[in-house]
## 1
Amino acid sequence: ADNSRRLRLFTAGPSTQPCLSKHATMDFEAPDSPVTAIVVGAGNRGRTYATCALEYPTYFKIVAVAEPVEFRRCTMVTRHGIDDSRTYTTWTDAAAAPKMADVAIITTQDQDHPAPAIAFAKLGYHILLEKPMAVTKEGCQAIADACDAAGVMLCVCHVLRYAPVNRRLKQLLTSGTIGRLVNIQHTEPVGYFHFAHSFVRGNWRKEADSTFSLMAKSCHDIDLIRWWMGVSCESVTSTGSLSEFHSSRKPAKAASRCTECPVEADCAYSAVRIYQKKGWFASHVVNDPRDTAALETALATGPYGRCVWDCDNDVVDNQVVQFQFADQRTASFTMVAFTDKVCQRETTFYGTKGQLRCYHESQIEHFDFLSHTSTTIQCEMPPDSTGMVGHGGADFFLMKALLQAVIKNDPSYIQ
């Protein structure tokens, strides 16, 4: 059921212990006037965070947008009623204008984060910054320094920290529920078609043009492991490879484009199957996925119609990271492309008095060694009505935390 709900994002006997109510709300008083924001980069993530303004208009309002792609910019203008005077094709034009909002939502491409984040921080905007913060250590430090100097809040979208199930896991570990934590095994199953779309055909396929796949896809998983551990990491080793998506794996009869390929019908990675027949990520390929002619043209001529074994990609499709932490603790993380589940993390925590397993977005299984019993802990989920359901509903809880931080002028809400 979880994966079915997740797929919709890409197209338009044990006892039970409740940890929170089943569905969350904005359970704090609305401000006299909503928090205002400018969206800098109106792609998928920018639109997702802006959805909060449509669902909770007394709390949040989008008042400006900077986006070079006309369709995305116009869509944001129409949805949020943005005035022409606050509609920009470049972030530099928006940053040249006087401060017009409380928050700047920076959702440009990964490698482009530092410049706008620093510029808007200097203007006095609080910063909501999509992960990864930057693709270099120097970029991260420059952003942090700019926010500190300006006295503004910086919220990096490591959204997994805001998921109630992950916060509950942190509470259980901190309270000693399973004794001393010894080891964490954590996996991100990227999803076979998701990886093909984003990291073989898409924007994150080449390290030189973006960053390496572990940074782009799983930096918040690495962050989670360190956060859960709560002690310093002493050493890291890692290995990975581009195992599948290169020319030497290409089937003998395969063409360079799926629309011309004689074996397309037998290929799980077929662009025709993924974008046309299933509709997954079609809105990332063309402005209006209902325009079948435009989609056919895009697949026949554009990057998303290429054979996955005949692209210019170079990022790894599987990687393992081993961590040695203080207090003789260890962890292992696996990122792998070849999965049916799509980004639905699987985690097991091994302690001296028990273990925790989390293979579900709202449930934790606790096994206690002394009693030799298992308990299922049910955690909070976002409202049924919200469109901010990405990352197991963590997108909703991130925006809730940001609004609380700004409204109450209290950065402690930012994890």
## 2
Amino acid sequence: VGLKILEAPLQRDPGWTMPPRRKRGAVQRSGEFHPGRSCVSLRGALLAGFGNGAVMVAAMSFSVATALSGASAALTNPGGYHPPNTPSSAWTTNAVLCYMDGRSLPSSPSYSETYNWTPDKFKKLYGFQSQQNVTLDYFFDSFLFLGYTWLDGKSFWPGQGTAPLNSTDWTQFLDLQVLAMEHLGTAASAVADELAVGVSSHSGCGAGSSHALPSVFLSVIAPDSRQNNFGPVVPGGPSLNFSNSADRLAAAKWSVDLAVKAASNGSLGVNLVGFYWFVEDVGPADAGLVTALCNYVHTQYKLRVIWIPYYDAPGGYDFEYWSGVLGFDAVFLQPNFAFHNSSYVDRFEAVNATASENYLGVELELPMYIRNPQLQDWMQSIKLYLEAGVHYGFMQNAVKAYYEGNDFVNMQLGNSTLYGIYRSIYAFAKGTYPNTNFPWAPA
């Protein structure tokens, strides 16, 4: 492959400063971010070349049955939301985020049943179920697997936790994702049987098609620059040091190779359609790595790479940056309304304008908690997200991601009020919201 990588920090405009790296839902900094300012010098530096140094990664000797037809084509910005059911999003219409990490492991002190993904739980997301657990219809067409915390106080967030993740942690997390794919495949087969329809392994038959296997995006863990003894990625090779940009890229490619090889097992019953870049902002330190990784995934496997930046992530909005420079295939904007002190009108007006100008999908943040003091509770938050989708058109016109599926399972298992919310999310995914199933009337 011989991709050149970034050896020196990129120069950025003197008027722009990087905000603190934040996790999803953290308190937002004051002021509004202007995406065009952040990416001008980044784009120029990247297009000028990555400097010296090349990393060769041996081509895998197997074919990937789940690969989409054709490498990712260069996108143009036609204006409007990034629509559902397009090749660039791997035919996704509704993608649900499923968290699995150290809390998923029964041997962990932090184990929680909420993070243990059984086939029965996946049935409630791939299929839509009654309160009596009867499968009535299909629900989410795509699944994004990601984590948050790991064992021994480690974190998936670079620079956080007790210590950086190493190669053993990465492979254990991949094992967890592969097991989840197997359980999702089992669930998909059961849902198809219960709905008395067949399934197809073709990943391009359209989102929501009754005969499509579930599509899966796996997470690429961001190499933590604190790690100076990651471990080897080739037999007899040196232990990688993530203070070296070449080693960071080698590790990211290695993880993609392992994931594709694991997913090439046709017995899993799902389609691996792409990868998710885990960190929610991409600044100068990571831009070269992300660009090279996206190029590798596209050329080597013809799969997609998606991203979900937080509301004011550096460059996250700007189409020329996320598509033309970084090389992502689809980007979902986080409104962060549930987590930030903002008004409904102000936030969703801005989300609508930004997403429409930059060909973005939208993430709906629908957990059973909030941090916005202007909301009375998490149920009101969910209602307002759904109503915004109807009012601003992203219910019908945008590819969508949903945070977080773990809570959706709990809603289906809950009382009639919780089940009503689960049913309303299903109606939204189908494009038929509003309905009469929400537990209380609009204000």
## 3
Amino acid sequence: MAVPRKVAVAGATGRTGSLVVKGLLERGVDVVALVRDVEKANEKLPIDDEKLFVLKCDLGNEDEITACLDGCDSAVWAASGFTDNRENSWIVQLKKVLGFAFTPSKTIDAVGVPAMAKFFNGEDSELAKIVMLSSAGVTRPSWDESKKERLVGCADIPIVRLNPFNILNIKAECEENLRKSGTKYCIFRPCGLNDSHPKGLRPILSQGDVAVGRINRSDAARVLVECLFVPEAEGKTFESFTLEGLYPGESILSPLARMPRDNDQGISEEIATANYAMMQQLLPGTKQESASLAMGQTYEQFDKGETGRLGERGKEDAEGAFVTSNNN
């Protein structure tokens, strides 16, 4: 089985994307970093590494993406997401996520992911040609009311309840377009990306979009990288979080191997409900009431009756609620 030798990373200067770049370089892989700001790349990436190639690329331009992918075996899409960083104003963050326009059809994801899929389409491989960083919760806004009530612990968490600028629906649509593209893929949906959460922990994987929890970006990046190298990841969509005290195994190959591919029978409602019941037992904190959290409030703060950084539930600060992780 031929392993990737040259991988493109979209969103390479973001906090998750830069860790993906580092992980690939540690494996001895040539990396093509697709960036908007070369100066920023010079500051954040190990530009002295002879295996790193930095290319300026407008991720909202199909022609530029296609040109930058020349010679690459595969790609990681890590160009957008969610974060707890409030460095920039909401309008700056909005422009970063939506790229060059404010309409869903022109989001970076909606343009860039199909462009990558088109480039790699038709290539026969046991491995995923594109690994997409998505987000847990993307399907939940579209669930019917009965399912939302039955799975309230994941359907009524802050990011789903607020769904700023319809971003979860946009992500879900981009995922579906990738699945239908015919290109070998893997879609990874991390739960809350949190730089303060301990790193170096074991990822808990699940399917059905019912997981809730936290994962450090370094662990999320490690999952993204590994999915390029194991055939068990190809054609699958899954979520993940990590738990303190569970240290990582040698590989995520075994749990991935147990999961069905998206084009198989998929996850039935019965299995999704069972997964949900298990995932709810693994929530952080002592009260474990994920649906009662406010945006920006930690489980520990909720346990202590403390207000989170964005205000009380239902009164969260919209400016801080909508931020992006990989375009900082």
## 4
Amino acid sequence: FFFFFFVSFCLASSCPAMSFHNTGDGVLYANFNQDGSRVSVGTTEGYQLFKCKKDLERVCSCEDESTGIVQIYYNTGLIAHVGAGIEADSTQRLVKITNVRTDKEIVRLQYRTKVLALRLNRKFLVVVTEKNIYIYEMSSMKQTHSISDTPPNPNGVVALANCHVDDDSECRHLLCYPKASDKGQLFVYDIENHRLMSIIDAHNSPVACVALNNTGELLASASMKGTVFRVFATATKQKLYELRRGYSTRAMIVAMSFSTDSKFLSVSSDKATIHVFQTDRHNPAALKQPDVVEQEKPTATWAGYLYNTMSSTVAYLAPSVSELWTEERSFAQATIGKACENISTVIHTSLGHVLLVLTAKGDFFKFLIRDDGSCEELIRKSIFTAETPAEEK
């Protein structure tokens, strides 16, 4: 029992997605923007922003404060920044929204506890602390809602649908976060209408990483073991795919990302191989939203507790019984040489689908994913040697 408890504690203490644990090279954080055209990097010295669709070009850099989190709002000059707390005057409880093109700070958001994660989409900013989630409108930076007293989420596990679409009716502004720190259940929350949509039983063990696709229709999850990933339809809770990285070797999953067209899911870990899975072979009818929105039932009474327990059990067993999901290995694999924590995303270019990778050592890779699943390395470059175009200087 003690050994099981000790292993579970160690796994549960792993770092959140996109924040790197091995910071020997000074890279603390990295994140691709909503369409994969830019990447932001937080370091012990500050932050750097890069264009990455064609080549790796530095857009700007700042060395005022160590950076624990930095995210770009699409291709604009707006960034959301959280300090790493290394210097005496650096705090992890403050979010700064800045326009780097005009070098002007727009707003500061102060919190009582450490900010663990940020998520941005076209309409909303989501700030995650261990026990609270704060939601703001991007247009005004006014807080629209907060989710208080959430289950402890020390790793800042959260996902927000990008909604990078022309017609807002084509997507749902959904947020996903753990229902408990010791179980594999997930809340799916509609931040636009301020309501809980559903509870998904994703894994038996705690969830290490989650991702929502562009439209909010697909939800991917990984457990602390890092061997099995599952993809669900958010509207129906139906399990569409069970995906395997391996059968025995565990891995710390750092990040998961759907391509903007939702055809692929890339999974990054602390290993040397990035796995890319196909996620476009399900029946579209499985994504159809039900007429009745599910709400969590009260558990204050024994009847309420029994109802929730039975509902969760049925929800977990139903996909397996009806065999509505498929089990698959990765469609494509890309190798970065030595094992290293990394993040990745898949974008669509004139060449086809391209896998972008950035490691905790600051190495940037670009791989062309061919139709047969093979990967051709197109670019390998270090962020520390990337040049700044003359017009950006």
